[in-house]
Design a protein that fits this description.
Chain lengths: 265, 584, 307
């Protein structure tokens, strides 16, 4: 857990300050220096691509954009999922039944294909990526928050609060929300890699982030085209992407174990 | 020769020993009771006998069964002994039976595994066994899943699985704790009847269960065997402090002081209350039907009933936690109506509730201080923090907790302490009526006694009126002035405590009393007083809801619903109450 | 049981209709048409093309026409290849995709369930930790990373297996694509199986079975396998969707002329009718398979059936 968090923090810092320590800009082409291998010569630490663009800067930019998309999309899913789930769980009864039936129905939809359709129809709009990815991932969050809220609402301390006259707002914020926090943190941590996966998938297909902007998915796509001549173009972004996903997954698992253990106490 | 011989048994998890230096024997066809409070190591011992402890437990010492050492033996050898030589019945049959397999398959597997029968022969043996444990229509039940059976029937099926391979030793670990008292009597009787020459090790927290049934007793405390001997002698002259304490804190339905009727004016009355639910399939369940009751100043009114009696629904409805569909509640001359949030602050303040499970009733994220002071914030907002703190400290002191508890979280409290914190929270607003919903059911001996004593003390000091809901008649006897008996949502009898325990008018009340175990081997154990179980609320019986289980029932009982009427100072709903009074 | 299955079916139909209408509206709400870009043909040609696709009619009428065609299995002509109907293109690409997907799914379930059960029975052991580390890697590395890296290593550098599809013969060409596609699903299913097996083995009824002397093998077979498979079964729906998604990438990377490849081509070419047709086809497939999974769930869990 410490390793995962540390590595993620390091990658994040690198993505923020990295572009400043490199003399190159992400969109600058240089046809005198195409497909250079990684090395310290001319500060092309990760080499260059077929247009002579510096891959160190482009990779860091890719990480920035990938993380940005993932975090914003996770926030979107957090907001939708938590409010939807909490309302269904707290109100309960018929409202809950209908709301959860809708979630069940949405679960059966081939979302990723609808998102691709959306991307085709709306010309790879950057903002749409956030919304689309957030819209896919809120379902899990809603289900989990709803289940938890429902069981908390049935817990007798909520009845005790109602009996002593505690207001609904205070019950929600003082009694229910703090007990939801743990599970929400865990699922946000697990939603981020999901969002990264969807974004990089779309970008890999050329349907996500558009040139000259880039993301890890687009970089992998570019790397596949040149993989025989310049394998580093594939291996560097691919490794970074996999490592980041793994760190988030490890972190999420560790947090879940932590909260589970505390819960069962 | 002894069948089972345990010597210096020690069970450890890491460095903590949960069972330490325990030695005892069980002889052939003998019945031995193993008693102690929860957490004393009795169940751990039972699991150790069958090699069922989790992997992180380490076992040392010797367990000899029929001459052979079985502690720390191979899995294969254990598998040969299990079911055929030693078998076990667990507490909760809902958990202990596989919900995904038909009852018959689960039993048949035992026969197949131990090569006792196969093919249709196995099926026939299973059906015969199901018939022996009293499952009606065993051919049908062979194909039933556990969730399709009632609690009592499930436990019968569990017993069938434990006895089908004819073991020499049957371990029963709290076999009736999850069941209603009238069903408990049936199950204990069944165990006794079926075991023949199988030895029985009966594990329980309830002295009443072992008193009339076991030849010898083993008493556990904190992982040690503190006393053992013949049952009669141990009850008559307990040697250890543990046994003395167990005896002292075991409430009895047949002796002890009874409170005289309370004389105060009526503070709360419930008239014709009905509560309905809809289940998952939208079918209507009438949890409470037409209940009329009143509560006096400084009175404790007990409401008793088995599962499905509607006792919890009734009080939740009168508190406004769930809707009441018919009837009205009058408190201090004013109508109590609507959901609790919509009621006047004074009305809310005056009625408070104490729950059964103190762990669930306290917010795990809040400290004791915030839990107990929260009602003050709501009802007396202008108070300063110091004033509030002083009141919290005072009320905690009253319930017997000092200031060191202020900053603890609920998980740092014992069950009894947690329940006292919950009571402190309910009392801090100085309510006029306190409703206790099975408030001591989760507590053992001395902790239970302390809470009961606390309630009596508060009532003496402040004239608090209490509604005390319980399934345990012995506890009810010691705390209440008056008792109301509910069955399937209907009120069957209301009487002063002394009268109810000496001359029960309703056949159901009488059955409840007869079924309640008495912790005294000199009091003869009744045969199971009534057959069957509480029917489903989905299809309540016609006429008198109790008639299918009542041995006095006749045509009138199934046709006509008996109304509550007053006979010699007791309100009772039975067509034959007068006749029964003359023929005890 | 029949009622339960029927109930599920009754829910599947409006769900499918919802997807169709949603997808249709999405395409038609798009700003600009397929012929708006710089390669747009002459206005006169455009007008005839728009008329032949009925783009001049009001939207509800177009939707009605589309649905009517759909019932007869007609998804209209392709926007980019007007000589082909969308149904023909789907019929052309689907067999290869189906073979690939079915093989990957089979592999994923077999390997995933066995590895997960194995790990659960040896919880905490070296084997367990190895399986779980592999699984963590598997769920963390996306298909579009695994596919090219495997091609680079095993085909381009080591020449062990063919890199492409056409030209290479026999079963060998399936090996890499199927493994690539199955890998993340193996990982997910192994994790799920392990967690659920550990959960089931910790329940009281397993202790009862042990007390009856049933032995590990019988306990797994008779008592534990069925309930432990329930979460895995629930995951089959998402797994099918994930395999379909993955096949888009795998077909692209390995040059397999399947449905996924046509889908990406269509998406990049903005071949609206083709993309719409494939989305609807996929949706039907996913919903139908989900329906089967739901019914199977009812077969295993007697309590679900009753509701």
């Amino acid at each position: 857990m410490k390793w995962s968090a540390g590595l993620l923090l390091f990658v994040l810092l690198l993505a923020i300050v990295g572009p400043w320590i490199s003399p190159y800009a992400f969109q600058d082409t240089n046809f005198d220096a195409i497909l250079r291998a990684p090395g310290f010569v001319e500060a092309h630490y990760f080499g260059t691509d077929e247009f002579g663009r510096d891959l160190f800067v482009r990779t860091l930019l890719g990480i920035r954009i990938t993380l940005l998309v993932a975090v914003v999309a996770s926030l979107v899913s957090l907001i939708i999922g938590v409010s939807y789930g909490a309302i269904a769980g707290y109100v309960g009864g018929r409202v809950d039944a209908v709301m959860m039936r809708i979630v069940d129905t949405l679960y059966a939809l081939p979302f990723i294909f609808l998102v691709i359709l959306l991307m085709v129809a709306f010309e790879r709009n950057f903002l749409l990526i956030f919304v689309a990815i957030g819209a896919i991932n809120w379902l899990d969050m809603a289900r989990i928050v709803r289940g938890q809220t429902l069981s908390l609402r049935e817990r007798e301390f909520v009845d005790a609060a109602r009996l002593t006259g505690v207001s609904t707002a205070r019950i929600i914020f003082r009694h229910i929300a703090p007990n939801l926090l743990g599970i929400v943190i865990v699922y946000v941590t697990l939603t981020i890699p999901q969002a990264i996966l969807v974004e990089s998938f779309l970008s890999f297909l050329g349907l996500g982030v558009q040139e000259p902007q880039t993301s890890l998915g687009s970089l992998v796509n570019g790397g596949v085209k040149q993989m025989e001549a310049a394998p580093w173009m594939l291996l560097i972004p691919a490794t970074l992407l996999a490592a980041m996903l793994m760190c988030f997954n490890f972190l999420g698992d560790a947090l879940r174990d932590f909260f589970d253990a505390r819960h069962s106490q | 020769m002894s069948l089972l011989e345990v010597n210096n048994l020690r069970i450890c998890y890491g460095d903590t020993a949960v069972v330490d230096d325990v030695s005892f024997v069980v002889r052939r066809s003998e019945s031995v009771g193993l008693v102690g409070e929860s957490g004393c190591g009795k169940s751990q011992t039972a699991l150790a006998l069958l090699g069922l402890l989790p992997r992180d437990a380490s076992v040392s010492g010797s367990i000899r069964f029929d001459g052979a050492e079985i502690a720390n033996t191979s899995q294969r050898q254990l598998d040969e002994i299990r079911a055929t030589r030693i078998s076990i019945v667990f507490q909760d049959p809902m958990q202990a039976l596989n919900p995904y397999l038909r009852i018959g398959q689960q039993l048949r597997q035992i026969l197949l595994q131990h090569n006792l029968a196969r093919g249709t022969d196995a099926d026939e043996k299973v059906i015969a066994m199901l018939a022996r444990v009293g499952l009606p229509d065993p051919k049908q039940q062979f194909h039933a899943y556990p969730h399709q059976l009632s609690g009592g029937m499930r436990q019968r099926a569990m017993i069938a699985s434990a006895l089908i391979a004819r073991p020499d030793l049957l371990i029963a670990d709290e076999p009736t704790t999850a069941l209603d008292v009238t069903v408990q009597a049936q199950i204990l009787e069944l165990l006794e009847e079926l075991r023949d020459d199988t030895a029985l090790l009966l594990i329980t927290h309830d002295l009443g269960i072992v008193a009339g049934r076991c030849e010898r007793l083993l008493v556990f405390e904190a992982g040690k065997l503190v006393e053992s001997g013949p049952t009669g002698a141990m009850f008559a002259a307990p040697a250890s402090d543990s046994m003395k304490r167990l005896l002292k804190f075991a409430p009895r339905i047949d002796r002890g002081a009874i409170l005289p009727p309370a004389e105060g004016k009526t503070v709360l009355s419930v008239e014709g209350a009905s509560v309905s639910y809809r289940d998952a399939s939208h079918r209507e369940l009438r949890a409470v039907l037409d209940v009329t009751l009143s509560l006096r100043q400084a009175e404790t009114l007990a409401i008793v009933g088995e599962s499905g009696s509607g006792k919890t629904s009734l009080v939740r409805a009168l508190l406004g936690l769930i809707p009441m569909h018919a009837g009205r509640v009058v408190y201090a001359g004013q109508l109590l109506e609507g959901a609790v949030q919509t009621r006047a602050a004074a009305q809310r303040r005056d009625l408070q509730l104490v729950f059964q499970d103190p762990v669930s009733a306290l917010n795990p994220q809040m400290r004791v201080q915030s839990i107990v002071s929260e009602p003050l914030r709501v009802h007396a907002g202008e108070q300063t923090a110091q004033v509030r703190l002083a009141r919290v400290v005072a009320i905690l002191k009253k319930v017997g907790l000092n200031e060191s508890f202020l900053h603890r979280f609920p998980h740092q409290l014992s069950g009894g302490q947690a329940q006292r914190v919950a009571i402190a929270r309910s009392l801090i607003l100085e309510p006029k009526i306190l409703i206790c919903d099975e408030a001591v059911a989760a507590l053992d001996g001395s902790a239970r006694d302390q809470v009961l004593e606390l309630l009596r003390a508060v009532q003496r000091e402040s004239g608090l009126s209490i509604i005390f809901i319980s399934h345990d008649l012995a506890v009810v006897r010691s705390i209440s002035h008056r008792v109301a008996v509910l069955y399937l949502g209907r009120l069957l009898e209301v009487a002063d405590t002394a009268l109810l325990f000496s001359e029960p008018r309703h056949p159901y009340t009488r059955a409840l009393l007869d079924a309640s175990p008495v912790p005294d081997p000199l009091v003869p154990t009744h045969a199971a007083p009534i057959k069957g179980e509480v029917p489903s609320l989905l299809s309540p019986p016609s006429g008198c809801v109790f008639h299918p289980r009542c041995k006095f029932a006749d045509g009138v009982c199934s046709d006509k619903r008996p109304l509550l009427r007053e006979i010699a100072g007791v309100r009772v709903a039975c067509h034959h109450a007068e006749v029964l009074l003359k023929h005890p | 049981m029949m009622r339960y299955a029927l109930h599920r079916l009754l829910w599947a139909i409006p769900t499918l209709l919802l997807v169709i209408v949603l997808a249709f509206l999405m395409v038609h709400a798009a700003p600009g048409g397929p012929f708006d870009d710089e390669r747009a043909p002459h206005p006169d040609v455009l007008a005839t093309v728009e008329a032949s696709y009925h783009l001049d009619e009001p939207l509800p009428q177009q939707l009605g026409r589309y649905l009517y065609g759909l019932i007869q299995g007609d998804l209209g002509p392709s926007f980019r290849y007007p000589n082909y109907s969308v149904s023909e293109l789907i019929g052309h690409g689907f067999p290869a995709s189906l073979k690939l997907g079915a093989l990957a799914m089979l592999l994923a379930v077999l390997v995933g369930v066995s590895a997960g059960t194995f790990a659960a029975l040896r919880q905490g052991s070296l084997t367990d930790r190895a399986v779980m580390s592999f699984a963590m890697t598997g769920i963390s590395i996306p298909v579009f990373v695994v596919a090219p890296v495997l091609v680079l290593l095993l085909a381009v550098k080591l020449h062990w297996l063919p890199a492409g599809w056409s030209g290479s013969a026999g079963a060998a060409k399936y090996v890499l694509p199927v493994i690539t596609l199955a890998l993340p699903q193996i990982a997910y299913i192994a994790r799920l199986t392990r967690a659920s097996m550990i959960d089931v083995l910790g329940r009281d009824f397993i202790r009862t079975a042990r007390a009856q002397g049933l032995g590990t093998r019988s306990i797994i077979r008779v008592h534990a396998l069925k309930p432990a498979m329930l979460p895995v079964l629930s995951y089959m729906g998402p797994a099918i969707a994930a395999i379909l998604t993955g096949s888009v990438v795998v077909e692209q990377v390995f040059g397999i002329p399947g449905l996924g490849a046509s889908f990406v081509q269509g998406a990049l070419n903005r071949d609206y009718t083709l993309v719409l047709g494939i989305v609807i086809f996929y949706a039907t497939l996913i919903i139908a398979l989900n329906l089967i999974v739901d019914v199977l769930y009812g077969v295993i869990d007697p309590r679900v059936r009753q509701q």
